[in-house]
Write a structure and sequence with these properties.
Number of strands: 8
Shape: globular
Largest sheet: 8 strands, mixed
Oligomer: single chain
Strand content: 15-25%
Structural class: alpha/beta
């Protein structure tokens, strides 16, 4: 089985619509794909419809989820939440708070850029985001179009909209321990996304993983494009010591990143354990 448990669609900052993501996952030969847009389940309905309409040589299973924006000790981190009840009121309310603040944040970043004399507009950023949850990648795309940077990675630096950057603005983020509690309460399973992705900025110390494990964290994402082999080995050791599940995934964003669906995958036994632990929802399967 080929299992990719971390992907994004146009419901957040990916370039594939949810329906395209499903069709592309099937074309890539995946058996399981998780749709984990940032702080939203807005793409689930379209993905589920596309799954029902899928006509291919092999079935595909869809794991519904989200990637929750968190912060602890002044450091941002992301929490993958799988198979939770999307209607559970506490978690729903927190997701809405984070999603709504994304708009305020993006508008504030655009205002800072305009103040620096940069020719970007909120109207264009909103147009790039479309119906999705607006985020920094959409502001970065506007900078690329304006000819100021050559890539999203170049935009995510102190020169522009990286942490501490000239046009950076903080956003509302969940406490990760509260995120674990909320997802568990909604019947879901939690996996710490790319915990040592130092290319993205400051990472929390390993002690936070130990504390999160004590609070009920289910697993850590180890096989990820932003983890080199020594980092993966270290994280596997931590997972073994703490009894955490180890996942692998592409963190696919369509054309916004070079990574392809299924470039990193999760062991079938780990996937089965995630499904076993979840009580809020179950994977959906094509005909």
């Amino acid at each position: 089985m080929r299992i990719d448990l971390h992907t994004h669609s146009t419901a957040s900052d990916g370039t594939d619509t949810p329906a395209e993501l499903i069709r592309n996952a099937a074309a890539a030969g995946l058996d399981v794909v998780a749709l984990t847009d940032h702080d939203t389940v807005g793409g689930h309905a379209e993905a589920e419809k596309a799954l029902r309409e899928l006509d291919g040589p092999r079935p595909l299973s869809l794991v519904t989820g989200a990637e929750l924006s968190c912060r602890v000790g002044g450091v941002s981190l992301h929490m993958l939440a799988y198979l939770f009840d999307p209607q559970e009121p506490e978690l729903h309310r927190e997701r809405e708070l984070v999603r709504d603040d994304r708009t305020r944040r993006a508008q504030a970043m655009v205002a800072k850029l305009v103040g620096l004399g940069i020719p970007v507009t909120w109207e264009r950023v909103a147009e790039i985001a479309g119906e999705g949850a607006v985020g920094r990648p959409h502001v970065a795309q506007a900078l690329i179009e304006a000819g100021l940077v050559g890539s999203i990675a170049e935009a995510f630096t102190p020169e522009w909209i990286g942490p501490g950057g000239r046009a950076y603005v903080e956003k509302h983020e969940l406490d990760p321990f509260e995120a674990v509690r909320l997802v568990k309460n909604a019947g879901g399973v939690t996996v710490f996304a790319h915990p040592a992705a130092v290319k993205r900025g400051e990472c929390v110390p390993d002690s936070v993983i130990f504390d999160l494990a004590a609070a009920g964290l289910d697993g850590i994402e180890v096989d990820h494009m932003d983890h080199d082999e020594p980092t993966r080995a270290r994280l596997r050791g931590i997972a073994a010591e703490l009894g955490l599940l180890v996942t692998g995934s592409s963190d696919y964003h369509g054309t916004r990143k070079t990574i392809r669906l299924g470039d990193h995958v999760t062991d079938p036994a780990v996937y089965e354990e995630i499904v076993r632990r979840a009580t809020g929802a179950a994977p959906l399967r094509s005909a």
